[in-house]
Amino acid sequence: MISILGIPLDQNSSFLRGPAKAPQLIMEAFYSDASNMFAENGIDCGDQSKFTNLGDMQLPSGNSAMNLIKKTVAKQLDKDQMVLSLGGDHSITFPIIQAYAQKYNNLNILHFDAHPDLYDNFDNNPYSHASPFARIMENNLVDRLVQVGIRTLNTHQKSQAERFGVEIIEMIDFNPEAVFIFDGPVYISIDMDGLDPAFAPGVSHFEPGGLSTRDIIRIIHQLKGNVIGSDVVEYNPDRDINNMTAMTAAKLMKEVLGKMVLL
Ligand code: MN
Ligand code: MN
Questions:
Q1: Looking at the whole model, is its pTM more than 0.85?
Q2: pLDDT tens for each residue of 213-243
């Protein structure tokens, strides 16, 4: 069984607020009559025997929100529910992975993003959306972190990646035919700015030269490994055009849900 959880939090965004409004709009796109509920592999994401929609979390302001996210996800995992979260900015991935790491000791993360989010210190906010993967790696929460779509690697983040052994597939080296193979359980974290802004304009940080929607879908379909959780983050409705990024987020959500059911 899979729980779908909205996490309306953008307090750790560095440049623009907005992603707190995302979960509701992605859910509207997910259930919209403009499309149907099927993933391309034939799984019906509207099947209530497989998917439970928990709605949006009620979050306190301040850092206690992060602890509540961890506890809420841990509670689902204790009930053997896998979790797909809708963010929210990317800071939510750290408390989610803290919860997952309590259950899985050989976790892998497949991370789509324009940015590696590996800053040791960004604006003196340890929970910054620019830092979740630094926090995850320094706490040894996962075996492997594989990042795809990266096109903003600066000197500091490159040294952080080397320090933590992060496997980065930069956009400059990206092969759309590549197949990703994982031994243990896989958590998929999708930052919507990993897509080219032509496909997903509703993001805070435009970074042209990115992945196509089909690139990400193909990687999800061909991935070898058990997908046990996921998040879709950094959708900023204030920047969107005709809800097209909400529809893209809902599409990716369906393809990940379809893959998670195959476990
Ligand atoms: Mn990110
Ligand atoms: Mn990003």
A1: yes
A2: 999 999 999 999 999 999 999 999 999 999 9
Q: State in Å: Cα 215 to ligand 2 middle.
A: 17
pLDDT of residue 115 exceeding 80, the answer is yes
Question: Length of the chain in residues, anyone?
Answer: 263
144 pLDDT exceeds 90? yes
Å from CA of 129 to ligand 1 middle:
6
Distances (CA, A) of 249 to 61, 167, 225: 26, 25, 22
Nearest-angstrom CA–CA distance, 166 and 89: 21
Helices 64-78 and 93-103: angle between axes, nearest 10 degrees: 40
Q: What is the CATH number of the domain that holds 242?
A: 3.40.800.10
Say how many Å lie between the CA of residue 120 and the centre of ligand 1. Answer: 14
| pLDDT one-digit tens code per residue, 156-185 | 999 999 999 999 999 999 999 999 999 999
- Taking the C-alpha atoms of residue 78 and residue 149, their distance in angstroms, rounded to an integer, is 33
Q: How far is CA 81 from CA 25, 74, 77, 243, in A?
A: 24, 10, 5, 30
Contact by Cβ (8 Å): 189, 156: no
> Which ligand has the nearest atom to the CA of 206?
2
Ligand whose nearest atom lies closest to the CA of 131: 1
The domain in which residue 80 lies consists of 2-261
Distance 42 CA to ligand 2 centre (A): 30
Domain count, the chain: 1
User: How far, in Å, CA of 72 to CA of 101, rounded?
Assistant: 14
Q: For residue 23, what is the enclosing H or E element?
A: helix 22-31
Question: Can you read off the two tokens belonging to residue 22?
Answer: 């995302």
Average pLDDT over residues 74-93: 97
